[in-house]
Amino acid sequence: MTGAEQLPPATSTRHRHLFDLKDWSKDDVTALFETADVMGEVMQRTIKKVPALQGFTVGLLFFEDSTRTRLSFDRAARAQSADVITFSSGGSSLSKGESLRDTIETIDAMQADLYVIRHPAAGAPEQISRWTDAAIVNAGDGRRAHPTQALLDAYTFSRSYQGAEPRDFSGKKLAIIGDIVHSRVARSNAILWRELGAEVTLCGPRTLLPDELAAEGVTVTNDLNEAAEGAHALMALRLQQERMAAGLLPSLAEYRQRYQLKSEHLELADPHALVMHPGPMNRDVEIEGTLADSERSVILDQVRNGVPIRMAVLYSLLVGRR
Ligand code: CP
User: Fold this and answer.
1) Contact indicator for 148, 105 with CB cutoff of 8 Å
2) What is the domain extent for residue 252?
3) For range 39-46, the mean pLDDT
4) Do residues 136 and 109 share a domain?
5) Structure confidence by residue, pLDDT tens digits, 55-74
6) Are residues 164 and 134 in the same domain?
7) What's the pLDDT at 7?
8) Is 275 helix (H, G, I), strand (E, B) or coil?
9) What's the CA-to-centroid distance between 96 and ligand 1, angstroms?
10) Atom 3 in ligand 1: which residue has the minimum CA distance?
11) Which of 252, 29, 67 is nearest to 152 (CA)?
12) What is the Cα–Cα distance from 299 to 113, expressed in whole angstroms?
């Protein structure tokens, strides 16, 4: 059995690209999660490979460092028998003065069907889409969006939460703690979890909390105890320590004392609350190391679920577009 016959019908999405989640409805996300369930079964098999994307070529274009996102998209493409071409800005001809447009047009001459793009500039994936006919998936652009991270985070919650009705996000509360202002993960999760019906609370020091998010229907607080109270998921974000130099934080010791996610905060949360972190994490800075390793932590499940979610995204955009 190849497994191809168990894949969902090719009618999974109305989207051409995945730039951010602003135009993804709850139904779109539910359909993607159902596809990811099938892909997850594929990844449980002895032979973790199906021919679903045979003949397609996926380009992984990373203009910024990555471990999880780059490797899991690579795994997701190869597990579906796609060919993969990879580009990293380090070691490329960008250092010789080649422009972004010339770089993209050069890669595109090698004929990929879809590009996964990480770039430090917000909006780079949309800009690149004007220079190619291929589908585009945003793998993180500046501080703006990281849609597949948010999808795998919500998917992990829906699979791991042991309390009532894990797949129903209404009445659930997600608390995101840390460096919110620089975080594309916080923005994408806020949009997605609210679309799914959850409440979202963002917590951090005043200098790391953007005012504009309060206007988008999320709760904003500087008090970690208040954020943790009754939360069903507690998500710590990496403290981007380069911000310390910019004077946005008084001291690392004070940050740890006021904003490090600790087991005492879990005690204030829902009895089944999950501990999450998108990675990479600074142990014992934004999250207590023992909490990151605890039974309530799903940090490695987030990484594991990144593969079926990204398989579903590739499959939906390449095969399942209505
Ligand atoms: N969460 C995340 O995007 O991790 P990487 O930077 O390692 O891809």
Assistant:
1) no
2) 147-300
3) 96
4) yes
5) 999 999 999 999 999 999 99
6) no
7) 63
8) strand
9) 27
10) 69
11) 29
12) 31
* pTM passes above 0.85: yes
Rounded Cα distance, 157 and 299, in Å: 11
22 φ/ψ angles, rounded to the nearest 5 degrees = -60, -30
Q: Cα-flanking dihedrals φ and ψ of residue 182, to 5°?
A: -100, 10
Q: What residues have CB less than 8 Å from 178, skipping those under 6 apart?
A: 203, 204, 208, 236, 237, 238, 239, 259, 286
Mean pLDDT over the full length of the chain: 93
- How many Å apart are CA 125 and CA 251, to the nearest integer? 35
Do 262 and 128 fall into the same domain? Answer: no
pLDDT band at 273 (very low <50, low <70, confident <90, very high): very high
Do 307 and 237 fall into the same domain?
A: no
Q: Is the pLDDT of residue 2 over 60?
A: no
Pocket-forming residues, ligand 1, beta carbon under 6 Å: 66-69, 140, 149, 278-280
Helix, strand, or coil (residue 83) = strand
Best mutation site among 63, 64, 65, 68 for ligand 1, i.e. most ligand atoms within 8 A of its Cβ?
68
Atom of ligand 1 nearest to the CA of 65: 6
On the question of pLDDT at 311 being above 90, the answer is yes
pLDDT of 5: 55
Residue 264: pLDDT band with limits 50, 70, 90: very high
Residue 94: CATH number of its domain: 3.40.50.1370
Token readout for 150 is: 């948010």
Asked if 234 and 251 touch (Cβ cutoff 8 Å), the reply is: no
Per-residue model confidence (pLDDT) at position 131: 98
* Same domain, yes or no: 257 and 235: yes
> For the segment 110-146, what is each residue's pLDDT rounded down to a tens digit?
999 999 999 999 999 999 999 999 999 999 999 999 9
Q: Domain check: are 230 and 250 in the same one?
A: yes
- Domains held by the chain: number: 2
Judge if 122 and 157 occupy the same domain. Answer: no
Do residues 138 and 163 both lie within one domain? Answer: no
Atom of ligand 1 nearest to the CA of 67: 7
User: Could you tell me the two tokens for 251?
Assistant: 């001291």
CA of 146 to the centre of ligand 1 (A): 9
